[in-house]
Amino acid sequence: MGWWPFGKKPKVASNPNDPILKDTRTWLSELRDACEMNFDAPEEARRQIRHMQVEWKEAMDRGDMTPSLREGLEGRAFRLLNCTDQEWIGWLDDLKFWKAGWKPGQDDENEA
User: C-alpha 50: how far from its chain's center?
Assistant: First the structure.
């Protein structure tokens, strides 16, 4: 009677030092969600963005984030933190702004 199909599963050895890395879409999604949840309260969203910037720096210091990813996130954060409340809605509605690979100044070059 040693075989039983509903027995306990063997424990999988996991390395506590092995971080689950977020990808670019996840970081962007978190930023966008914070902004869209506070679309009518830009100051609260800006507070959350500043908190995210600390998380990005910590992730970069740990080696969990690439420099190019942080540069892209910081470029978006800069625009969101320094825009007027009227421009705020424009950034939230700009689909190119939220795509991976967006770079600061890219839209200016395409419009000229």
Answer: 12
Q: How far is CA 82 from CA 17, 50, 77, 86, in A?
A: 37, 12, 8, 11
- Segment 76-94, tens digit of pLDDT: 999 999 999 889 999 999 9
- Show the tokens assigned to 49: 């963005």
Q: What is the CA radius of gyration of the chain?
A: 20
Residue type, 50: R
Q: Is 31 exposed, middle or buried (0-12, 13-18, 19+ CB in 10 A)?
A: buried
Which amino acid is located at 81 in the chain? L
**Residue linked to tokens 């991976």:** 100
Rounded distance, CA 5 to CA 17, Å?
33
Mean pLDDT for all residues in the chain: 83
| pLDDT of 108 above 70 | no
Spans of all domains in the chain: 34-96
Average pLDDT over residues 38-49: 93
The pLDDT, as a whole number, for residue 14 is: 47
